[in-house]
## 1
Amino acid sequence: MLGLNSKDTMLLIVVAFLALAAPFLLNPFPTNSSLAQFNAGYPDLMQRFAIFGIFAIGFNILFGLTGYLSFGHAAFLGVGSYAAVWMFKLLSYNVIPAIILAVIVAGLFSVLIGYVSLRRSGIYFSILTLAFAQMSFALAYSVLSNPKFNLTNGETGLQVYGDDPQILHREGLPDVPHLFGWAMRDNFLELEVAGWEFTFNNGYYLCAVILLVVFYLAIRLFRSPFGLMLRAVKSNQQRLNYTGLNPKPYTLAAFIISGMYAGLAGGLLAAMDPLAGAERMQWTASGEVVLMTILGGAGTLIGPVLGAGFIKYFENIFSKINDNVLHQWFAFLPDGMEDFMVFIVHPFVGKGWHLTLGILFMLVVTFLPGGLVEGGQRIARLFRRRGKKTDTPDPEHHPKETPHVAE
Amino acid sequence: MDAILLQILNGLDKGSAYALIALGLTLIFGTLGVVNFAHGALFMLGAFCAVTLQRLLSLSFETIDETKTDFLGNPLKVKTPYVEGWFGPEVGGAIIDWAVPLSILVAIPIMIGIGFAMERGLIKHFYKRPHADQILVTFGLAIVLQEVIKYFFGANPIQTPPPDALLGVVNLGSWLGLDLPYPIWRLVYFLFAIVVIGGVFSFLQFTTFGMVVRAGMADRETVGLLGIDIDRRFTIMFGLAAAVAGLAGVMYGPIVAPNYHMGMDFLVLSFVVVVVGGMGSLPGAVLAGFMLGILESFASTTWATTTLPGINQIIIYLVAIIVLLTRPRGLMGRKGVMEE
């Protein structure tokens, strides 16, 4: 179907099902139960799942396929957000031109950065992209917000004001981002079934549909000759040179595509909440997308989406847990033990989420370099091994893996 | 003339910090071949060694002074630091006053210990893995260290004043007839950096240990074949690099109040410094550190910021980009280190 083989079609259908049924799937607990705090089926969080999923898919096209580790990808996300908000200010609150401009601007920006950064590889490439992103952050934060030429509105962040031109804005259209009249923040359906509440949000479904489209594009790209070429860059760039192929155009194309994905994610972020701030471009934000991709499994199709969902979900849940919740959890223990357990767990939850994230990150990189996908495969293999004898390839008769030249 | 000299001086303190951190990064990279993203966190840990010592020394007990009364007529409670109780008010007061320089003595063993623990516990397992994995795991470690410090010390900057004697401003140019006011502590920091850098270089240049390490940096395999346990020496070098970063942090406290993310702020710039100086070149790292510090200081003058607004924010990155594109190996990079 759609030029995919049966396995990929299955994957796409599964992802489509997960994305479209998310309001049900993410709300497994009744609203009034004590477990309702683990529900993730509210619009704001679901939108972030989809948006950061797009961001991570895009990052994976660069890192997973070519092996070039960019540490400045958040710059494109930020540029996309700024472009989208400018579209809101100048044209109208319709999200279509905003998202299109976000993708175009991020694409142009990534041509510029990619052309320069890709002249070096390995650690130099990482540092160059990091330097570019930090520079963009500094520019957006202070330089481009001077009164004469206020492009980013500095620390406050760019937002839409009442006296902005909005030349295409007409009476009757909502005063928030909308798609031909459907406001992004509105819910088109709110179901209440025996204690469960499900909200179906316009904005989330826009993000979900776009996620599916770009996921499909990513599958096609992974399976295309172009994708194969990118893998060749990762596995052995030198050999590629010797065969007379110039890898530069391929890596640059991958960089631009992944920059445009990031711009799209940035545009969607602004479409859900018409605000763009410089902190979106900071290097911690770049680190986060690296985390998502690695955690899910770099170089796999579904991995980045899983990683993005995982991190955003736990970020949300963990930040909500405070000492009272912990006391409830450990209430079954004797008093002394209860306090002790709360004392032990306390630094890792609430504001300590980043600590948990850092530890998780180290564990994943150390023990599970393939991320969640590899973990799942290992478990699956464990179960399969019970039935039949393993057929591990004979190491003697396989060539050794050559290290990536960029590493 | 005065203005130019003053800007050079102003760049020296930041340049010293860049140089010290970049020196450690280069040492680790040159010996172990590991890109250490947690190096900024080591700098921060150093600064918090000073904070901790200052707090420990200021721990005090309360006594009731019968001779003095507060405005209600109750006897006044007087807080006396334990140190003053033990050594008498004068010596004790001086010890508290000199807490930051004293922390150097405490920080060296602590930082070397942390360095050993890091190398043996974590980084050892990543020698054979790709650079991307090394970057990622040390990045994770940096987050963890940063969050641990945030948990214990809070998110706000903590003031660590220098000794009273070193507070204030000295006019460096008075004997030349120039007007060069300069904070004493910054001068101390610069001299301290020079001493540390000189110490590291002479250690590598004039001791047998340093000679073996240099040989190992040039050709690890051959040194190993000669029957020398090069791994152990490299571990010691990692501890040394950690100590250098820590010392840079200890003394930096009085210039900028330490907070939990200061390491990351410096790390990004120090990486740029290492790349500009040339990966694997120790003199390059030091030179580029001072150079970029001074350049940044020139870019922060009112003249520069009015002609090109914001140039002070981006000058270092701009220079790095230009250097990498025109001299990919960096200013003093060695042939064959991290090349395509």
## 2
Amino acid sequence: MEKILPITCPGCRSEMQVKSLYCQACDTTITGSFSLPLFLKLEPKEQDFIMKFVQNSGSLKQMSKTLKLSYPTVRNMLDDLIEKINQFKKESHENE
Amino acid sequence: MKMNKIFNPFHEIAGSKALFLGLLAMLATGLIGYFSHTHFPDIISIKYIPVSLPLWYYFIQQLVIWLIPSVIFYLLALLGASSSVRIIDVFGTQALARYPYVLASITGFSGSMKRFGEYIIEVAMEQNQEASISSFDLIMSILIIVASLLLVVWMVGLMYNAFRISANLKGARAVGLFIAGFAVSFLVSLFTGIQLYNFLQ
């Protein structure tokens, strides 16, 4: 079973931070406070969309064939994603 | 899921494919309408007029009721959309949105509607109290009227989804622009339809 990375706190719905990173090879643990990369803040299906978009050389026409969806539907999905990323960026600027 | 596809096939079909299928549907509507005397004088109306008119008139009528809303919705999409809009998507999806009217063109084959129309004219306009209609014709006419209304609702729903998806509009903005575009399209198509009909007289 694939584990889902929790990105929001189940208690207060705030954004989660990375507190520790662990190396399985040498058993090293680094602790601190790290923000999640923007890509990981997206939903799994949105991450999948970006991966497919890159694999299709950024061609919406090719994407529509791969996903078996119409061109405007794929373009709308991309527009929604751009809007969401811009929102994340805006929020992170406000928090800085 | 299937129901969703009936009201919104545009998630999977748009652009030139939708245009091709839509033009085929309009060609079929015009051709069947010619034989059944079913007219589409504006973007929503379905009328039975038992007058012989040339075949080209039925095809021109189909083009008029497709091109007028397509042009208006394209202009509104350019005004309201935040990203790029492809003209082929607006025109293609609006063409495909007219496919329920293939069924509407068949309604004119029913003799019951013709007799129901004559009965209404005799009772309402000529005050003929002795006019009568058989129960079969009455039931058939009511069924055809209800079916026609459902076809109108179905097509308007398709037109809305076609506009919403081809222009990437959501919520109140999509609804507002659609209502405005639909109302203008209706009036312009009605006026054009009357001019076209008068041209033949």
## 3
Amino acid sequence: MRRRYHLHLPGILYVALTLFVGVAAANRPNNLLVWVFGAMLAGVLISGIVSGGMLMGIRGTRFDPRRAVVGEPLVVRYAVTNRSRWWPVFNLHMEERAVRTTPSTDDPVHAGCAAWQSAARPADGWVLHVGPGDTVHGEVVFFPERRGRFLFDRFRIWTTFPFGLVRKSVTFDQRTEFLVHPRVLPLRDDLLSSLTRGGLGGFKLSSRPGPGEDYFGVREYRPGDSVRQIAWKRVAMGQGIVSIERSSSTPPRVRVVLNLRTATARLRVAENGPNARDLEERAIAIAASVIALAAKQGYEVGLTILGMALHGHADTSFSLRRSPIRRGHWHVEKLMSMLAAVDLDADRDEQAHLPEADRDRAVIVAVHPDRAAPSIAPEGAWHLVATQLETLLATRSEAEDGTSTAKAVPARIGGAT
Amino acid sequence: MNLVERFRLSALVLVLFAMVAFCLGIRNIPLLLLTLPLGILSWYVTEGPRGWAISRTVQNILLLVLLIWAGVEASRLPDSSETMGLLGRFVQWLLLVKLFGRKSRRDYAQIISLSAVLVMAGTLQAVDFAFAISVFIYTGLAVWTVLLYQLWASRERVRENRSRAIETARQAFGNASATTLTPPVQAVFGRSLFWQFRSVGAAAMALGLVLSFVIFLIFPRELADLARRDAQFGAPRVGFNEEVRLITNKFISDSQREVFSVSWSDAKRGETMRFAEPLYLRGSVQVRYNRENRRWEKSRRNVAPVDISTTGEPDSFDQFQPLTQRPIDERFQSYIQRVTMRSLASDVIFCAWAPTGIACAEERHFDFDPSTLLLRQRPGSGEGRLYSYAIKVQPFPSEATVASLGRQLRPISREAGFPVETVVDFTNQLVQRLKIAVDVPAAADGNDSEALWQRNRRVSRALAEWLQGPEFEYTTDLGQFVQVTGEDPIYSFLARYRFGHCEYFASALVAMCQSLGIESRIVTGYLAIEYDDSANEYIVRESNAHAWAEVRVGEFSWMRLDPTPAATLARLQERRRSWADSFRWIYDRLEFFWNSQIVTFDSGSQAALAESITGAWQKTFRGWIETAQTALKRLNDFFAFGQAGTLWLGLVGFAVVLAVVAVISVRRRLARLRKATGLTARGAAGRRILRDLGFWLDALDALDARGLGKPEWRTPRAHAEAIADLNTPVAATFAELVELYYLIRYSNRDIGPDGHRRIATLVADLRSSGRSGGLRR
């Protein structure tokens, strides 16, 4: 925690004006002018005293942001506590400070993280007032422009209260890592249904009970069961009250295979098209969009990243290179996090291929940066290429309110350019 | 309306008040009546339901027009001292333009700054009490508005930044939902916001007031005092001007405010009476006319002033100090003129012709000018300004008395001495037209001087009668008196307009007399004409300020001539007091304090104040020392310690003080420790645990210094886990301390010397990592 006073242009101008008035007051027999000079000088003193005293008892804590999405607001919240007994604090600004050194070997936990300022433009938050002993929460909204793992290093709380003459700040060290998920683009609604045509995923009976319609079995009545679930025939037969269980149907299954086997430098790039790194980011965005669309349409979805391991990630709760095919919000979040953590500067394995375990009963959708490589996936898999992005996007009428048919092509995908 | 939204209204009020203050300062009520309603109207126009505002382009055009107007006005300024007034008028119109425009953060900052410039321009022009009050109020209002501006501008800044970021996201990523997903900027505040904000504002104002007056008292004034002697700026405006300026006429006052009262009594019998004619109380004399800056100036003859001192004895009000050591012809009737100040604070002593002695109930020093018979309090000769004094005067002194007072014989001048040729020509034509013989006839007895004095009497009276005739009109409204470029205002008065106030009449008479070689001079002061029969004294008001002429009619004799039409004097006699004037004394007292203690506060007053404060402090301090010495001596005698007793008692006292401080510190630390640990046990076991847990406060302080302070609601172990992700080494150190803390706090076990050493090491580690600055993993 460090406190500092900063030079501030309005303050410099004010002091210059004060000196000017002081010179005038010294040379003119005008005591009212002398008093005005005294009042102006008192303003400088009070500004230093009040603002310095106010920040003495300030403590700040950042609430770790969970995740962010490229192009969407990342709200970072701060708890600001005023530990002073008597002094209230007004007009506080919170802002993240630049990361001093990118963590490397001295900080293995955050190794590989990029500085936050490479992900988003600076922003600041504002707190009007913190009373003595109070804690209030302020927020800063960033708009991440890049996907990846980033690091918040330290943040600063500053104020120019009361007169805006002196800017005082207190800096708090608090390292926090956060993930920026890739941008999810609005794909055509019929994309997945056209891919899964042929019944590769299909509906089938599940081995688990669920909300389906087919008969699964009976079990003892539990309080809360609907009377419609009760097997009245069994009751009539004197077998006690039992409830009928229905089977759970299995939705279609999609496995997204992101092909990153080829090193960035070796990708084939069109002359007037996007560069290699942009193509890779587009591929990641397509993969993320397919996953999001699948989740939205009730598919079970899995992800395999071919050609690279996720570098240095400590969390082993899910496979770093592939995930099983599942459904649900948290599963999709995990897949997005996998995509977010892809480090395109890492080494590639050009011989990688889809494991046998991933060739399960599911539609395989392979996404390639520059050109399709059918060999990486079994026959019948669908191959999408990053350059196809425009053709995959929903029209604006689908994406918004149906008034236009223009393609909703974003200006940027959100990767490193 | 929430706190932040109050700013805009507060800013408008600030600007309007600045306009009021400035117009009060330069006494330009028409400008105020024009701009103030426009300023109020701007609120309805810009903030009303339609929210109309003039565009930037129109603002720039208006600014250009204002600049051109100001440039033209500046080129026509007759006097450079009017520059600040012009600047103020320019700023006032500029403020109006800004008020009618759309206002961003920058615009509001400019508006506040311009309002300060406006008040500053007024401050450079006026020091009177009404203006000072408005400056004080403006300052308080400005503090409040600036505090609000800080809040408002911050909110707007964050809003603008966030809107810009949203728009960027919309354009770059085609994220149409960025607006709806982004939380709006809202004011986040704690409890009692309004009350605390008002408290901070009031504290800032109070502290500012105290500091500003301290600075005011200690501000060096040597240079200002030099300037004060050369210029009359800063003197309170109470109608009376020490100099006659024919450039501007805005200082002519018709105010009914009481300036002072005069009691006139017979010196021999002592009975108070009303004199047979109005009392012309002289305050200043100007002899030379400067045609360049069109003002009358004092004589360049340096006559050493006579130092007159009053002793300040209780009964000294009846002991007049003679103004000359030479004999005074006491056969002529003397009167006592007692002046009691009501609102004027000035060094000038107003007295009727011719003063022979002065008395004052305070110890004062006066300068007596033998050439003009004027009295003035010596600058810095006493704290504050005169409240009352008494003058012994002879309204009709003998030549010998004036000779005694004047000491130096002034050479007789016979040549035309007026520097404006047009006036000289006009005068020559006039005397021919009026058939006034201006030549000095040869005296039958050979006494040319007497013939000269007779000529002076005759010609000056004739000219004064001509000025008092129907061709001339007295008025204080000089709106039609347009200064013609290249034409002297005296000539304009005589030949072109023939209306004006007393300064023009007196100037014209003196100018014509000097054109004809008649020695004459302008006298300014007050005309005591209103007599209060119930109090048996004259009431002198601001509107009684007057100017007249004196013509030399003897080696030491000057004849008073008042060319102002007599009807004017009659009008001055009318009592024109409204009911509001009955309460005027309250304001007058305050103004008198302002003029006597603040406006005229100079280096002499500063030195006197410092001396009195130093004296009082030394007196008090010496009293304390003596009391302490006496008590120590008694104690020493009681215990019979002998010579070294004082030293021993001093050491014991010092030790007692140290012990008290130590006990207080320990008790406070124990209380804090009990609160931090929640330990309530009071017995020996509790004390032992508390003693062993002393490190806990140090550990918490070290964490706090690193910004990792433990909230009260979180358990130590949970806190160690919580900070593990923020700072691993610190968290590891703290976690070990937590285990030791739990061991001591709850197991009631003695950790032994090794445990204490380990604790000391861990706390030192915690502190040293804090000193290294910055989090390191």
## 4
Amino acid sequence: MRNIYIYILIMGGVSYLIRVLPVTIFRKPIKSPFVQSFLYYVPYVTLAVMTFPAIVHATQSPIAGAAALIAGLIASWLGAGLFPVSVICCAVVFITEHFIL
Amino acid sequence: MNTNYSIRTEANRKAFLLGMRHAVPIGTGYFAVSFGLGITAHNAGMNALQSFLVSFLCNASAGEYAGIRVIAELSPYIEVVLVTLIANARYLLMSLSLSQKMDPDMPFVHRLLVAYDITDELFGINIARPGYLNPWYAYGAYLVALPSWAFGTMLGAVAGEILPKAAVSALSVALYGMFIAIIVPPSKKDRVVFGLVAVSFAASWAASRLPGISALSEGSRTIILTLIIASAGAYFFPKKPQDPPQHKLESQKEPENA
């Protein structure tokens, strides 16, 4: 039986190692353009992979999740910040599930 | 030059307070993001204490989210190692950059402590300070940011338990909304990022449908797709080495140097 606390400890340990090794052992800046570019692109790729299609399955109705995704993309493209985009997504799900479906 | 690293000195005490002050807007933003993370943790079957601990120990939105999704499926432990490693890989870059800003004479223990809460925003304010890094400035900022992050997650998990189903369903997309707000602005400015994000959406959807790969856990799919797509991006579209890392969340304004 797997234990949630063990997962949490592993996550904490790995997260700390990533941050502490560079300031204690490596210390030298990365010169390779490939590695630099890779590390630059990784967060955007990971976030994109984790957002879709997961957002569609996160809500009670998949249509509400899809609507939230589209609304979020548009709002963000038009310049809305972190918090407003998030609130818009939540509101779209609430409205879709209650008043439209 | 500041070679005294004791909190007893006037300069360090001032730096500590300044760090706290600079972290107030960051802490406010953290509270909102971590609340959404707490809802996700609740949906994954985690209780309030577990939600608090995961944020107190990990200090990372994407990294924690990725790990929490592995917990939701109770996949093998190795998967949580890899997914945490990949979702947090950018901190390696930030820590390396911050280590260039550390006084070689600074006591080693400060390196161990400062490393604990290197996040996009806290890295940002630390790197923006003039001269060598003052660890007390970092500690002041951490003292404000870290509890906001951890308690926000805990409250989110509690809210997931007590709020009606409809509200939880709506709040479940809060974190995705923030993820969207992080990936869209750089996609507007950088056509390569735009392309990679579009490919990621398409590939992630295909991977959840295609026979074979869709049988893998969500965590494994995230690991595989990220490695392939980010490697391809780095290989075909390398960034110029002098481009500074632009890891900053949109909502956080550069605090003015006081």
